[in-house]
Amino acid sequence: MATGSGALDTFPKYLLQNAKKFGTRPAMRHKDYGIWQTWTWLQMLDEVRSFSLGLKDLGVKRGDKVAVVGSNRPRLYWTFPAVQALGGVPIPVYADSVAEEMVYVLQHAEVRLAVVQDQEQVDKLLSIKDQLPNLEYIIYDWQRGMGDYDEPFLRDYGKLQEQGRSMMPGAEADWLADIGEGKGEDLSVMLYTSGTTGKPKGVMLSYDNLVISSKNANSFDSFDENDEIIAYLPLAWVGDHIFSYGQSMTAGYCVCCPESPDTVTENRHEIAPTYFFAPPRVFEGLLTQITVRMEDAGKWKQKMFHYFLDVANKVGERILNGDSVSFTERLKYTLGDFLVYGPLKNRLGMSRMKVGYTAGEAIGPEIFRFYRSIGLNLKQLYGQTEASVYITAQPDGEISADTVGTPSPDVEIDISDSGEVLYRSPGVFMGYYKNDEATAETKTKEGWVHTGDAGFLDSNGHLRIIDRAKDVGKLNNGSMFPPKYIENKLKFFPNIKEAVAIGNGRDYVAVMLNIDLQPVANWAERNNIAYGSYQELANHPQVYDMMAEHVDQVNADLASEERVAGAQIHRFLVLHKELDADDGELTRTMKVRRTLINERYDPLIEALYDGSSEKFVETEVVFEDGRKGSISATVQIREMAPHAPFAMKEAAE
Question: In angstroms, rounded to a whole number, what is the distance separating the alpha carbons of residues 384 and 393?
């Protein structure tokens, strides 16, 4: 089999090499109709080639933009190399975006084709097609529900593959020649930012950006063809593109797609991947489930669990780091692994986990240490779309809950005079699509990229992130106000799902909280607290008491840190509704849109500062079917007593 020409500098070339080098090794798995289906690298090459030739028959050529919309499914992953083999550029779009959100991205990118998962995504695109003059074809994966659609521009993925196979073997030579023309400096993919502060920007990443970053990451954690990952993160997120596509292609490891987004935990248990990434929220949720289950367990099991958890807290991380531990402690830990840690890791689907990463937000130190104490090599990294993910990562043996690691391979880090983190690396993006002004603001002529984050390098060379540089403000008394830092401390509590801190240019800090329904509902059930809705539970006096305890603990933590002691929380409220991406309050990557929230909840914010003890509010919401409605409530407001700063306590003593 011919392997194309040129160096290994594009993903289609890696696909050809992997089919030759790894052949019958598994490349991809997918659980469908209750059965795990497996494709070898040779079979995956056949699937990609046939679809690519079908696309070529539709007229796809070098430079064409192709949208990819849906969940983590083999055919959608195969679309990436199929399009790239022809010199086209795939543009993954968040599957849960409503039609109106898709319009800007598809218009801006001048998308010519869209490859989508199912009828739902087809319907979204049909509803906005008149606003997309460049969109010529919509190709769908699932046939279910598509029988009565007769639009001439709709194509079935499988039938397009059949058309591609009918062109074999005569078309293969030209197809290989197309792959051979690809170069490392070519545009590989466009990934749109979440648009936290404005319109999403199209981040252009070259093959060099992605291939070099992927190879460096594989080398850093010793990933090879024997590893496996479960792909469940959004296709449009740079993390998934690197972990489930770039690193897989360059290392040759197997990517496993879950049956559905709702079965990820169960499917992970069946696969037991060696490589796993999740944002802190996932790890927090899993720990909450463990805690809830143990509270429902028998007394003997609870005693055993807590006893061996104490053993793990004392020596687990030391054993994981290879430090010296006494024979007695190691024996107890080994017994705990047999009785508690091992079964727990198996239940979580992490029994074979070689490396796990978390990033995106700060993770609670207690949560982080829990996973490491039971023997899971959980680490933190810091990255951005513009960096092809990797800026820093934690080397084995240098793990801390307070830092995000040292510079990743080939990455340089600098801290500006204003405290902003800057970096330079082979992964630095080519630029923002059709936005030279934003590119110039973000990337200097010397290749340094402004992260927008404030941070510093500690004495060990590890990076510590404080907050978004533009979000760090000051109270009227001159005290520093780092909102994200405060919010992350609040979200360390499993009962708090979201938090928004206010304080810049004001006399004190106030926060608006969202409860996390699952743990709070379980708590309410155990305490015989009746409620009829999320709104009623969120406004319950005992829930407010619980939130007050959490806020008080955060204040105590802030008081112990001199630079943020003045940012303690004086007043708080619990919102009557969950902050929601469909309502525009969060991005699709679950980041808070502060400007919109400040506008939408302005009456509540003012009530936090005018001395009110409650405030009636009515808020517009968007339902799943697109209809709009409103939710009204009288929201309670609580006062909090700040703690004396630790420095003042020492002086008094």
Answer: 12
Structure tokens at 576: 């009557």
CA 379-385-389 angle, to 5 degrees, is 30
d(CA 559, CA 647): 9
Which pLDDT belongs to residue 653? Answer: 46
Q: Which whole-number Å values give the CA distances from 291 to 86, 168, 392, 494, 521, in the listed order? A: 51, 56, 32, 10, 14
- Characterize 104-137 residue by residue with b for buried, 16 or more Cβ atoms within 10 angstroms of its Cβ, and e for exposed: ebbebbbbbbbbbbbbebbebbbebbeebeebeb
Q: What pLDDT was estimated at residue 292?
A: 79
CA-CA distance, 634 to 358, in Å (whole number)?
37
Contact 141, 70 (CB under 8 A): yes
Contact predicate 358/380, CB 8 Å: yes
- Indicate the pairing of strand 509-515 with strand 569-574: parallel
Report d(CA 437, CA 2) in Å as an integer.
43
Name the CATH topology of 377-470: Luciferase; domain 3 (2.30.38)
Radius of gyration of the chain (CA): 26
- Going by C-beta distance under 8 Å and a sequence separation of 6 or more, which residues neighbour residue 418? 454, 469
C-alpha 100: how far from its chain's center? 22
What pLDDT does residue 646 have? 58
Catalogue the long-range contacts made by 329-335 (C-beta closer than 8 Å, 24 or more residues apart).
Answer: 332/308, 335/308
Phi, psi of 385 (to 5 degrees): -60, -45
Phi, psi of 262, deg, nearest 5: -85, -10
| pLDDT score of 285 | 84
Gap between the Cα atoms of 75 and 115, Å rounded: 9
- DSSP class of 592: B
CA distance 68 to 585: 25
15 vs 252: CA distance, rounded Å = 9
Q: Which of 143, 168, 145, 147 is nearest to 156 (CA)?
A: 143
Consecutive sets of 10 residues in the chain, 653 residues long: mean pLDDT of each?
Answer: 64 98 97 95 98 96 97 97 98 90 94 96 95 96 92 96 93 95 97 79 97 98 97 95 98 97 94 94 86 84 93 94 92 96 94 94 84 96 96 93 93 91 97 96 95 89 85 89 88 89 95 93 90 92 96 93 89 93 78 86 95 91 72 93 69 44
CATH 3.40.50.12780 fits 11-271, yes or no: yes
End-to-end CA gap in the chain: 79
473-652 maps to which CATH number?
A: 3.30.300.30
Q: Decide: residue 485, CB within 10 A, 0-12 exposed, 13-18 middle, 19+ buried.
A: buried
Q: In terms of Cα–Cα distance, which of 631, 586, 615 is closest to 487?
A: 586
Residue 279: cis peptide before it, omega within 30 degrees of 0: no
Transcribe 524-582 into DSSP letters: HHHTT---SSHHHHHT-HHHHHHHHHHHHHHHHHHHTSGGGGGG-EEEEEE-SS---TT
Residue ranges covered by each domain of the chain: 11-271, 377-470, 473-652
